[in-house]
Amino acid sequence: MRLFRRNPITTSPTKEEIARRDKTIDDINKEIEAKNFEKAIETAIKLIGDCEKRDAFGEALGNYLAAYTMILQGTDKISLSNYDKARTHLMRALEIYQLMEKDKKHREEARMKGAHALVTLATLYQFAGKYNEAVEACRKSLDIFRRYGDKEGMKNANTIFFATQGLRINEKINETLGFWDKQKSTPLVRCPKDGQRCPLPSDDNEGRKKCPLYKCPLEP
User: Fold this and answer.
1) Do 117 and 217 reside in the same domain of the chain?
2) Which of helix, strand or coil describes residue 55?
3) Cα(178)–Cα(183) distance, integer angstroms
4) Number of folded domains in the chain?
């Protein structure tokens, strides 16, 4: 995906176009509340097409809502296909907001909307088990929320941040426990080189090659 489009981004919709955009967004939210996720996604994608040439905010919101709905559709798990689609939509929304920051008139609003998109991106990463990426997205959003004093935004970002940190720690603990369980089930032998007990069976040639001593006398 290109980070920047060649054509300058436009934010000059007519009043009628803004009214249609706002009505469409209301319709999407209603479909989400009714859990008609497929319909909500379909309408959001149509909004992207309708706004692409004239209404940058509308295009970004369409991408954001499409991704947000895909995440809701997956609850706490998300398919690889939907993950890729949702991430593409969120990255597109962030790209648009980044471009809009160049215009002082829209800078603050674009940054704030971008921060909320980052929180949603963090949620997506968390569901996909990409905890490091989720934490990084939260940190970026928190920087923006703090700058503009958005307490509600900070609360939402911190919720995802600490939940992700907990999942990441839990994953590390499980990895460690799994390692020690494996060690407990492995017979120990005395290494003739240093007298230490080594969790490598004396007849495991491949295992001995992984020994930190390597030049172990047991090696044939």
Assistant:
1) no
2) strand
3) 9
4) 2
CATH number of domain containing 67 = 1.25.40.10
Q: State how far the Cα of 70 lies from the Cα of 93, in Å rounded to an integer.
A: 15
Range of the domain at 207: 189-220
Is the residue at 9 inside a domain?
no
In whole angstroms, what is the distance from residue 100 CA to residue 9 CA?
7
| Cα angle for residues 173, 178, 184 (degrees, 5° grid) | 125
Q: Which DSSP state fits 6?
A: S
Residue 5 falls inside a structural domain: no
Q: Closest Cα to residue 73, out of 118, 105, 41?
A: 41
Give the tens place of pLDDT for each residue, 79-114: 777 889 999 999 999 999 999 998 888 899 999 999
- Pull the structure tokens for residue 86: 């949702």
Per residue in 9-45, pLDDT (tens digit) is: 556 788 898 999 999 999 999 999 999 999 999 999 9
Per the confidence metrics, is the pTM higher than 0.85? no
